[in-house]
Amino acid sequence: MANENPSVAAFFDRRTFSIQYVVSDPATAKCAIIDPVLDFDEKSGATATSNADLILDFIGGEGLEVEWILDTHPHADHFSAARYLKGRTGAPTAIGEKVVEVQKLWKEIYNWPDFPADGSQWDRLFAENDTFAVGGIPARVLFSPGHTLASVTYLIGDAAFVHDTLFMPDSGTARADFPGGSASRLYRSIMQILALPDATRIFVGHDYQPGGRAPRWESTVAEQKAANTHIANVSSEAEYVKLREERDRTLPMPRLILHALQVNMNGGRLPEPERNGCRYLKFPIGALGNGAWE
Questions:
Q1: To the nearest whole number, what is the mean pLDDT of the chain?
Q2: CA dihedral over 143, 145, 147, 150, signed as positive or negative
Q3: Residue 222, helix vs strand vs coil
Q4: Which distant-in-sequence residues (6+ apart) come within 8 Å of 272 by Cβ?
Q5: What pTM does this model have?
Q6: Residue 2 has pLDDT above 60, yes or no
Q7: Where in the chain are the domains?
Q8: 173 backbone dihedrals φ, ψ, rounded to 5°
Q9: Which residues pair with 161 in a beta bridge?
Q10: What is the CATH number of domain 7-264?
Q11: At residue 192, does pLDDT exceed 60?
């Protein structure tokens, strides 16, 4: 029987509170990169590859071979480094097939009628319950909508990479008020994840360090069921939806959402340079309504 306990290395980006992962099979030295960050400074417009290069240095130092570059969804708070890492490693990129629904929604927001909303920016689009492997470790894709239309969970051996569906138990769950989001669908996605065996390791995509504690990113299904602040004391979907929607109304939009979606729905590709050699992001004014202000 194949070893179903992958090694997991986490890389915390303090600027975006994001956690990136290298998931590897010790028996074969094959690995997958999950949710890598391309550095972006919105004040200067500068990009850098410090996070991605740190991951590449780790992979090189451990003698690993990259089989997959995986995104759980098109992120709203950081740029994806998937395109850069594909260029450096040659590994295929993948995301859930519902990304095409996100593309269709956001191409209208950005007024890009010619944008190819067909998922062709990735090498593979995963459907619900699709299987693959990291080395000899079996992996499965769970469709986990709610935070976005396209969110997926990667279940690799005994490790579930849930990104913005669950946070650490003291932080609760993800918001559901982005375009295409749904608190009801998010609750059902969470229940599907929490139906996994209690010992399943849960790896989250963000940690906002409540109370100033050190960053954390790993729990278990059992710990989430017992202590998640948005789940443990909720008795129904309706109760969760009320809690989630009331909280979402108090939250400002992520500071990079309008910057990031146009890059991430394009597989991590920056806009093409214009005639003067510069790249330009498109910024729709008022596209997300009048949400909470910081």
A1: 96
A2: positive
A3: helix
A4: 279
A5: 0.96
A6: no
A7: 7-264
A8: -135, 170
A9: 154, 203
A10: 3.60.15.10
A11: yes
